[in-house]
Amino acid sequence: MPEQSKKLECAPKCLKPKSPPRPRPVPPVLIDPNQRYSMAETASILRQSRAKTYVDIRDGRLQVVKDGARTYAHGTELIRRSAQAD
Q: What's the pTM value of the predicted model, to 2 decimals?
């Protein structure tokens, strides 16, 4: 029986709702127009998921350059794309 009482004591603590995490401030990103960015960097700069980034590529909203199996976006393209969002 002592084990059951311990479980009952723990239950309210375990069921206590957690407060939502605080949003982190995002520092401004300086985009170099002469540099190319990987898809992970591109998604981070545009503040969207990688999947959304690939959808933008497929739909022609984001131009990219292929280097073998890797895909890159030029800095000028990221500047153009981020200006469209404003």
A: 0.65
